[in-house]
Design brief:
This protein has no helices and eleven strands. By secondary structure, the chain is an all-beta fold. The strands form two sheets. Strands 2, 4, 5, 6, 9, 10 and 11 form a seven-stranded mixed beta sheet that branches. The protein has a four-stranded antiparallel beta sheet with strand order 1-3-8-7, with no helix packed on it. The mean pLDDT is 96.
């Protein structure tokens, strides 16, 4: 069974940096649209960034210029480098992967989600 596994979360002060990693057992991430979402406490899940098969990134406006998504195909890992973190970035971050013509929630067509990892930014 294909799994997405996140790592690298933790606590940091405002202005600090963290790097999240997402690996997969059974799925070649470069073949799928893979990215990151986050869910602040008490709020809905929101898009953060994605990277496509051509390694082209897309970002939410709220993280542009601060976050960078990248991929290491040899390691089958997608990274989210988060710099200049703000208190508002505090959330559970999820790695997700889907086929291009399907929705993020369409698990019957291959969409997959990690269990999530907590990032806490304090002032």
């Amino acid at each position: 069974q294909e799994e997405l596994i996140e790592s690298g979360g933790g606590s940091v002060q405002t202005g600090g940096s963290l790097r999240l990693s997402c690996t997969s057992s059974g799925r070649t991430l470069s073949n799928w649209l893979t990215g990151w979402f986050r869910q602040p406490l008490g709020k809905e899940r929101e898009f953060v960034a994605t990277i496509n098969w051509r390694a082209e990134p897309a970002y939410a406006d709220s993280v542009k210029g601060r976050f960078t998504i990248s991929r290491d195909d040899a390691e089958n890992t997608v990274y989210l480098q988060m710099n200049n973190l703000e208190v508002e970035d505090t959330a559970v971050y999820y790695c997700a992967s889907k086929w291009y013509t399907k929705s993020w929630s369409d698990t019957s067509s291959g969409a997959a989600w990690g269990k999530g990892i907590l990032v806490t930014v304090s002032s």
